[in-house]
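User: Need the bound-state model for NAP:
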Amino acid sequence: MVRVFINGYGNIGKRLASAFSHDKEIQFVGIGKYSIDKRVDEAFAKKFAVYVPEQKIPDFRQKGYDISGTISDAVKESDLVIDAAKDGFGYTNKVNFYLPMNKNAIFQGGEDRTGEKKVADIIHNSRINYDQAANQKYVIQGSCNVSGMGRIMQPMIEKFGDKIQRYDVMLIRRWADLEDTKDVKDSIEWDKNPHHQEDVKSFLPSVKLYVEAYKVPSRMMHLHQMTIRFKNKIPYFDSLSDIYHEEFGVAVLDKAKGTADIRLKARELGFEHDDTNMVHIHEETMRKSDDTLKILYSDDQTGIVIPENHLLFQSMMFGRPKNMAYEHTDSLFQISKKRDMLEKEFKT
Ligand SMILES: NC(=O)c1ccc[n+]([C@@H]2O[C@H](COP(=O)([O-])OP(=O)(O)OC[C@H]3O[C@@H](n4cnc5c(N)ncnc54)[C@H](OP(=O)(O)O)[C@@H]3O)[C@@H](O)[C@H]2O)c1
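Assistant: Bound-state model below.
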């Protein structure tokens, strides 16, 4: 049994905790919490052991919470920490805890792979470099958009690789997550240096990729417009289902009208945390013109990285073959079943 601690209980941490606490191969140590708010009650309601920074123990106890120990105690008890901290705090945690205690850690996509605050050499994408994560001590799980792009690009590369000239991707990003209490600002904002381009190129170094990113006032997923330019005419294929129907975590739909349709359907169908955990290709919007193919797909920002973390965990801690890891993750998240349900709802 591998002992796992989830350090941070925000939008990603709480989803990681729901999933990892149900995996029978894992001894779930508990979660790390930093502020006193309604999420503490949520964690206790789920019967998770809660660990907090040493200096905050009196505050939590004064409010009546039965704290299991300090963050340091939890890291000590664990074989692997999945860090789900606010962007940049993963680095501090690595320096203060994981390195001195010689513990394995997975970091999230808001952490750096280069520069002063680098936490790991590798960004993981299960479809591309799952095997390279085996026996690594520190790995970053790519962010939601980066995970989604890998999931769409790798099958294209395998089918048409040397015929493709370049990829241009326009990311339309949600302002906030469903659970965030911050206001959604009425503005469209641009990103002068989207990190996604370099993150994807870290695992697909020979691909020509150009990314632009815009943030819009929505809480309902991301949307990617991907333009694939071929060296000559687009090779023949009938439908995107021909390329993606066997892909883990990719649904091919043709009658959703927008990202909210899918998110709300996930809620109606009872998917945990309203997550689909996948990307959804909107086949009816596909455009083909001479050498240029345009694909539109939406990306479940909060959900997609959770099974990716679970796959990465299996590579790092068990060195398990990828197909077996996909099977195990599918049994925990029911991704194939959810994809079939969404396709039934949104495919003619
Ligand atoms: N949200 C997404 O859709 C999404 C998708 C993919 C990847 N990510 C990445 O996942 C990471 C977490 O994002 P999030 O959306 O979950 O953020 P979030 O909702 O703001 O949660 C961050 C959590 O970090 C906790 N925290 C504060 N100091 C900490 C420390 N020193 N160590 C550990 N945790 C600490 C906070 O705890 P308290 O609340 O108790 O203060 C908070 O719950 C980021 O790297 C982000 O880029 C996010």
